[in-house]
Amino acid sequence: MRRLSALLNFSLLLTALTFPCSLFGVGIFHDLGLADWISYQEPLAFKNLVRNISAPGTAKGSVLASPSKNNPNYFFHWVRDAAVVMDEMVTRYETTVILENKNRYLESLIDYIYFSKLNQQTPNLSGGLGEPKFNVDGTAFSGSWGRPQDDGPAMRAATLIHLAKVWLKEGNKKLVVEKLYDGTANSIIKKDLEYVSQQWKNVSFELWEEVKGHHFHTRMVQYRAMIEGAELANLLFDFKAAEWYLSQASEMEPELERHWSFTKRILVSTLDREDGLDYKYSELDSSVILGINQGHVENGFMSFSDDRVLATVNALEEAFYRLYSINRNGAPGIAMGRYPEDRYDGFNSGASGNPWFLITSGFAEFYYRLARDLNHKQEIKISAVNKGFYRSLGIKRKSYDSYKKGSSEYIQLIEAIHAKGDSFLSRVKYHVDGTGSISEQINRDSGYMQGARDLTWSYAALLSAIRFR
Fold first, then answer.
1. Considering the entire predicted model, what is its pTM?
2. Which residue range is the domain that position 229 belongs to?
3. pLDDT tens digits for 434-459?
4. What's the structural domain count of the chain?
5. Residue 291 is part of a domain; what is its CATH number?
6. Hey, which residues does 449 pair with through a beta bridge?
7. 419: CB partners within 8 A, 6+ apart
8. Torsion of the alpha carbons at 308, 340, 354 and 348, rounded to the nearest 10
9. Are 456 and 64 in contact (CB under 8 A)?
10. What is the pLDDT of residues 306-325, one digit of tens each?
């Protein structure tokens, strides 16, 4: 691996010396296989992600959304983004066999816990835990913003529950009780869980910070927080809390089912809109798929292979293939955006929206996890709802046909799904330059990176997709 990385670095350096601008082009990795590019890009992505944690000039434990301070200014700690990023750190801590690295990751996680506790205790304009972002010194952000954003506490809880379970597996219950969950409402995880359990029925702004209502993504991550929170509470003998969280999760299920539109044949992103943008006419939104990824629990509810999820994936892919000219230039895969009516281009809100790296990587992750999901089923059924999705993979069977586990067709279908995931990573590869830096967006016409530079979530999304690959 190190030898390959060294060869790739030498090759890129030689190219840069010969063609000074080539490191910053589009498609410079065209001739490099996906696996080789991953070997090159993965350590760079993690290095760049770590650089934005407790960065110089910020409080320990803070996570920069991006080091960009102007045009746009993302030099803040977003609760949601930080949870995504630090979940990657938990996974690194859990899986590394190098003690030096494990200790370094642990230090970052402890710092994050203390900074998150500070966020929970800091008075803010949301009036509670739904405050979306904080200044990097831990003080409250006092500017106008879409408040509250109730996915943040749920995602932070899920990340810290992940850490708690790792510590319990290591036999370190004392650390869990001291740092994360002691059964009182003031412990960091329980404070978030109590907030979610009591606030999920209320409207809030979504992850794009543009619309106030009931959102599929928000409710999926809240659902996960309740299910996994109940599991942790039971492990720590907090049985009444576990019962309460499970009761709330049970109530969430029919509310999430309401997002299925029988007329549009998609899972719509928002219901009961009260404020914010009013021009999302298609009701298509990639946040639904991010919600499937980030809100997944192992109970079969809204699984990756759910027909409604597959129909929504297919509709999103068709919409963005038509919308962005770069998707018709012969490059692999489809560059995916937020929603078809998007007017934020990374700098201004009155422009044309673009594909996003974190979403394109998110679709890669979805396909890899879908392949795993289907591989555990005894048969794959084609239905009236999912047939468009399977047709996009080259499957021309009629509704109600099925593929039996172990058959050659079944195996070919699983392989096709995994290959589709690779096509999305290949699209990311096509637009990332030779420095390994990843911005927020991809210009819909030129293919060059655009918007906030070194977006930490972009790195976390890519690393997550690679891991599920």
1. 0.94
2. 2-468
3. 899 999 999 999 999 999 999 999 99
4. 1
5. 1.50.10.10
6. 442
7. none
8. -130
9. yes
10. 999 999 999 999 999 999 99
